[in-house]
Amino acid sequence: IIHFIISSYFAQAASLISLAGHNVCITLQNKQETALDLAHWYVLQRTRAPFERFRDGLRSLGVLDALQTYPLQMKCLFVKSEYHYDFVFFYLIVENDVSLEDILVFCTGCDSIPALGFSPKPSLEFVTNCRFPVANTCENILRIPVHAVYTTFKSDMDFAIRNSPGFGRA
């Protein structure tokens, strides 16, 4: 039985070594180099073709260019967030008590996008140390509070944005 198990492992190792194209006689002196070569092949080379097909598929749909141009904005599509950042996107999409113009005024002080764009470009930060959103209209930064429950997030966002008019519009 032991002989059978050992020969089975040798057969599997020999098959892996053959697939990797490793044609060097394995000795005690080159075992480390052989192990590194096999690990490199197993992790990188073996997966190259599927990875390239995946990359080509993303490129054909225009997603790869968007990922390279807007990596932070696209991250939410591929990485599960621990802070429920998707609340922000859901908040903007669903019908709510504030308009996109209200949000723009809250964030930037402007009720429309300037002809030459914003300078600096608006940015979004997520904070855990406050309940309500905070905007810095000079730097065009909106600091969004992290909540565990969407209804609380929506209520606090609506309250802050609805109760902030009067600062002035640019």
From TrEMBL:
Domain HECT per the UniProt entry, residue ranges: 103-170
Residues annotated as catalytic: C138
SUPFAM superfamilies (UniProt xref): Hect, E3 ligase catalytic domain
Gene3D superfamilies according to UniProt: Hect, E3 ligase catalytic domain
Molecular function per GO: ubiquitin-protein transferase activity
UniProt cross-references to PROSITE patterns, sorted A to Z: HECT
Keywords on record: Transferase, Ubl conjugation pathway
Classification via InterPro entries: HECT_dom, Hect_E3_ubiquitin_ligase
Protein's name in the database: HECT domain-containing protein
